[in-house]
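Let us practice reading a record.
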Amino acid sequence: MRIARIVSGGQTGADLAALDAALAIGVPCGGWVPRGRFNEDGLIAPHYPVRETGSPRPARRTARNVRDSDATLILSRGPLTGGSALTERLAREQAKPCLHVDLAAVPSDAAPARILAWLATLDGATLNVAGPRRSNDPEIYDIAYRVIAAVLRAGAAKAES
C-alpha cells in the first residue's frame, strides 16, 4: 500500500508525530479531533488540517479515524493501554488491518522495514496512526516521528521508481 494520506487524532506524542512527518514530507494528512480541538497541551495548532467531531469524547475521535482509514498503525513502547488499546479494539471490530509495533521490542531503525512489509500486503492508501501521548511516554514523539518519516520517505521513493 502506498500511503496517500495520514490521519490521526492530534494528541501529543505519536499522533502529532505522524501529522508532523506527513506535513514535512508533503503527504496529505488530517483526521478527527474532539470538539474544541484540544489535546493534552491545549489547543491543537491551526496548521494541522484536522476536523472536529461533534463530541468532546476522545473515543468518538478514535472511532472516526479508524473508520475513515484503510488500516491502522499503533506505535508504542510497551503494551497498549488507554486510547491505544481502544484503537486496536476498534480496528478489530471494524475489520480494519491493524499493526502494533512495540518499539521497546523492535528497534526504531528496524521498525520502518517491518511497517513497509505490512503495508505491502494491504489495499488502500489512508493510514491511521496512533500511540501514547507524550505525558505517558516523553520520548514517543521523537521516536514515532523518525519511524513515520522513514516509512513515508521510503514509500515516496518506491512510488517514484
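A brief commentary: The chain has a mean pLDDT of 94.
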